[in-house]
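Standup notes
- DV: blocked on the single-chain target, sequence here:
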Amino acid sequence: MDRTRTTNMLLLVIVIPIIFYLLKVLSFIFIPLVFSMFIALLFLPLMRFLGKKNVPKKVSIVIVILIIIAGLKIGGELIKLSSKQILATESSFLTKAQTKINDLVYNVDSFFGVESIPDSNPKLSRFFKKEALFSNFGSTFSVISKFLTSVLMTTFFVVLWLGESINIQKVLNKTLLKRKHTSVKTFRKIEKDLIKFIKVKFLVSLLTGIGTGLACYFFDVSFPIFWGLFAFLINFVQMVGSFISVILLSIFAFVELDPTSTLLFFVLSITGVQVLFGAILEPIFMGKSFSINIITVLVMLMFWGYIWGIPGLIMAIPVTVFLKIIFEQFPSTKGIASLISGSSN
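- DV (later): unblocked, structure below
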């Protein structure tokens, strides 16, 4: 008995690193697959509703795809609108930024007693020269092509999930749970919890983006649409996204606003938006079932960020919730689930 247990532990130690290695190497497949699973879970209630209305499954899938395309279209229009704002004010912003940076460097040099040499060559403009843009065209094109490939693969997998060509419940039943009743119950819980998580996260991120954009508008900070969209997207990265949004926007506002009480109130406003929606309302909406240890959140963000990059940072918490629910189904792994949630039970 002891030999069997030791053998199983050794096999587990060998297999787990191999699995993680495959997840990293085959990320171009697993990222669209996992991301599409979350999208399919979000639209499953709509699919059931249309099924009760005797709408054919193929028509229901087309409706879902059209909804997703409409969402992407709206996002694309917002990006186009914010890009026009940025291009329209590029020269004036660069001049203002260069002046602020030169003044800051001069003040720092004066404080430390270093003689500063005036530099009339605007450093920031170097990044916007046509030569620099064309030199980076190859890498930009590669990123765009990879993004489009991921979108197409995600759409393909969404169709498979919704068409039940890939059935999550059957996969759980055949691979992990081995019992039909348990697999159905677990799948329902996964579906309910993840749908709630995605809806709340989307709503909180949307409110955060709107609040950030309005703060930029009222304090006369340039590109409010861009910063609102940026805050909306970066907020999907748990914890880290809020800090990145506030820090970058504060640095940008330093260029736009005079270092007076106006700048201070603006920084306090965008920080208040993040605290209100991220630290207060989000935990209330999520409820106790989504209580995950802060250390676990940080570890999962680092781990999945290393495995899958930015998509891993976005999907780290949903994947953690998924694993937590699975671990709760086995007596031998309930301790791990309790450790993830931070509870003592």
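- Follow-up: Confidence is low (pLDDT under 50) at residues 120-128, 130-134.
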